[in-house]
């Protein structure tokens, strides 16, 4: 009798074990990384094509015109701003997204990466909002 009971238990255990579905191992998310300004704006605006250096984004065949953006003389919240190399004092220029516009040609506040920040947003760990003057900047929107 005990032999039948053991065999019965083994049969039941094999039935139940075949019904158990193993849990899939959770894929770890990539840790936020240092981003260039172009990577941040590219991802936030869903742009396509290669992103290159910031100062080339407003060229006639740059990232922004190729993605359907047009240049405007008056900035608005949500515009992409492109700062020239001279305005930034570097060889790359800078791009960011406008978050606030002061009246009377005052400064603009922009959100972006690689501009002295340490906040994490998306996959970037060097994001912040800061103000710049408008000199040497172009403003782009769809």
TrEMBL record:
Q: Which Pfam families match?
A: CHAP (PF05257)
Specify the Peptidase C51 domain's residue ranges. 12-141
Task: Enumerate the SUPFAM superfamilies for this protein.
Answer: Cysteine proteinases
Per its UniProt record, what PROSITE patterns does this chain match?
CHAP
What InterPro entries is this protein classified in?
A: CHAP_dom, Papain-like_cys_pep_sf
Q: Which domain of life is it from?
A: Bacteria
Q: Which UniProt keywords apply?
A: Signal
Q: Where is the signal peptide?
A: 1-24
Q: What is this protein called?
A: Peptidase C51 domain-containing protein
**Which species is this record about?**
Herpetosiphon gulosus
